[in-house]
Amino acid sequence: MLEKILLTRDAFERLIHDIVYIEEEKTSLLEYFPTASPERENYYSFIENYIIQVDALIRRVQVSSSSDNLLPIVIVNSKVHLCCFDDNSSKIVRLVLPQYNTEEHDISFLSPFGMALVLKEVGSEITYPTTQGLLRYRIDSIIL
Question: Tell me, what DSSP letter sits at residue 124?
């Protein structure tokens, strides 16, 4: 049996709101990509899988007033604490919907880096190509 996930009432309601929004707006989210292309189909499959995985996560939630809102996987609106292997630095990023990518540490969940993080578990290692070369990160914690 899978372990329960403890979330505060506010965090749980945000989680429900976000997944309902993504389910209802998945077609409009695809407007960021060219029509009738393999890339668009890949994103559609990615969003469909995301919805399935978050629905499974929701079934494991137990509301608790004393929760620290830790999550086992990266989802939209979660804050992800990353450790960079190359220089041992740490950073926090927040995965957001594309239209809310406004703050310095916000990353669209449909961007290449966002897609590399989405649905990954705590402890996962991510290798991400940049213009300066490959960056390697470990996910240390995920908070909603």
Answer: -
pTM (2 d.p.): 0.89
The vertex-105 CA angle with 107 and 118, nearest 5°, equals: 35
What was the pLDDT predicted at 1? Answer: 60
| pLDDT tens per residue, range 33-42 | 767 778 788 8
Tens of pLDDT, residue by residue over 79-97, are 999 999 888 899 999 999 8
List the structure tokens of 34.
Answer: 């060219």
Among 77, 71, 88, 95, smallest CA distance to 136 is for 88
Alpha-carbon span 22 to 129, nearest angstrom: 27
What CATH topology corresponds to 79-143?
Chitinase A; domain 3 (3.10.50)
Mean pLDDT value of segment 29-51 = 82
Query: Tokens 């190359």 belong to which residue?
Result: 86
> Where in the chain are the domains?
5-63, 79-143
- The Cα 112–Cα 135 span in angstroms is 13
CA 19 to each of CA 22, 39, 40, 55, 88: distance values in angstroms, whole numbers, following the listed order: 5, 22, 20, 8, 34
